[in-house]
Amino acid sequence: MTTFQINLYKGHPIIKDGENTMLIDTGAPSTIHVANNLFFCSDNFSCVTNYMGLTVQKISEMLGTEITTLIGADILSNFKILFDYKNEVVAFSKDETNSPMNETTISSFMGIPIIELTVDNQKLKFFLDTGAKLSYLDSKITSQHTSIGTDEDFYPGVGKFETECYEILTSFGNKEFNVKYGNLPSLLQMTLMLGGTNGIIGFDFFNNFKVCLDIKNGKIKYE
Questions:
Q1: What is the 8-class DSSP label of residue 89?
Q2: What residues contact residue 152 under an 8 Å CB cut-off, 6+ apart?
Q3: Tens digits of per-residue pLDDT, 127-159?
Q4: C-alpha distances in angstroms, 109 versus 52, 95, 130, 178?
Q5: pLDDT score for 186
Q6: Does pTM surpass 0.90?
Q7: Is 67 buried (19+), middle (13-18) or exposed (0-12) by CB count in 10 A?
Q8: Extended strands (E) in 31-109
Q9: E strand spans, 144-198
Q10: Which of 24, 145, 165, 192 is most buried, judging by how many CB atoms fall within 10 Å of its CB?
């Protein structure tokens, strides 16, 4: 097991590994790096420097801090990853962790994990996205709630945008927690529909649960 301290920069989990500053992004299918090869956790991985016009320089500009690597689902799915935001650590392991945590199954789309949550008494599917500081929900649902104001976010390929936000009680397992949801621009909302999901859950999920994510085997452990 390899453990890193997380810097939660504006809700985005960033780790330092030698010369590399890496954004852990379960919501991205591909890893983007400054070079075509990445040595990480004793393994060599091939990766791209440009994904559909997106480079780490462009992501750094949108983030507001410099990174060398956006580490996406293609590499993350090789590991069982423990996210512990309370203690600001993340751990990568190849082995099964025998922890006394609750366990449930998850699915995935293009390697991006999909989790089921309950909102307004409806069971809904969400992309589980460590790269998202804000969570997102279909406007058909948020329109039933009162706006708490606007927030700015960015999305690769779309750039920065503003959205109305809504604080909505959400449940997972037997725990209820508040989530700040925005609405995606219509182009991105269509992407959700392609994946058969109703939204994106990000920072607020990981801030409320200690999570062990196993994308390859379709499992999540949590407490």
A1: E
A2: 160, 161, 162
A3: 999 989 999 999 999 999 999 999 998 876 677
A4: 18, 24, 15, 26
A5: 82
A6: yes
A7: buried
A8: 32-33, 37-40, 43-46, 69-71, 80-84, 89-93, 102-105, 107-109
A9: 149-155, 159-172, 175-182
A10: 24
Q: Are 28 and 108 contacting, i.e. CB atoms less than 8 angstroms apart?
A: no
| CB proximity list for 57: less than 8 A, separation 6 or greater | none
The number of residues in the chain equals: 223
Burial class (CB in 10 A: 0-12, 13-18, 19+), 56: buried
Specify burial of residue 53 (Cβ count, 10 A radius: 0-12, 13-18, 19+): exposed
Alpha carbon distance 39, 37 (integer Å): 7
* φ, ψ for residue 206, nearest 5 deg: -70, -20
User: Dihedral, CA atoms, 182, 158, 10, 43, nearest 10 degrees?
Assistant: 120
Confidence (pLDDT) at 159: 76
100 pLDDT band, cuts 50/70/90, is: low
